[in-house]
Amino acid sequence: APAGISIPLHPQWHNFVDAWNVANIVTLLQSSAILVLGVVPIAMLISAMAGYAIAQLQIPFGNVFFLLLLLGLTLPFEVVVVPLYYQMQALGLLNTHLGLILPLIGLNMPFAVFWMRTHFQSVPADITEASMIDGAGNWKAFRHIQLPLSVPALASLGVLNVPGPPVEALIALSIVFVAAEIVHGRQGRPGLTQRYPWIVSF
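The structure assignment produced for this chain is given below.
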């Protein structure tokens, strides 16, 4: 076999440790965990409440609101990257976890609300009406009846959303990398706008 693909006679196991330390894997895993814990639970809660309101409560203009959310599924994220960058800059959230968490929650909303609305539409309205007769308000009916019934749908939604935040590279590049590298540079190096002036033309 060619030497390049042969089994090494003396494996250098410390290379794995060196790669772990040089790549700063612990910090990267911590950042991914912060994003997942910050995005997924909040997105699930908001989408559950919105889906319940649209499907069960017949709120005014609920269908119009739902159609606007569906339009969000057709909007390429690349269209909003530049406005999002300047909005985060105005809020002082560039190069922060919160500056990533808030946009990711918004990006998850169209599909998440669509998912939860579909679930709540499958729940018989008689259950909610019976709870209303027993004196429960909308919030109590949602919290004690509808939310427990939606655990399977929420679990599926959580599984679908968990891989999203860590791999959403474009938003991380625009909010974190762009803020640190393009404008200010890093480790004594000039920023990309100074090294490559033509980049500002984009």
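Interim note for the steering committee: Residues 191-202 have pLDDT under 50 and may be disordered. The CA atoms of residues 31 and 193 lie 27 Å apart.
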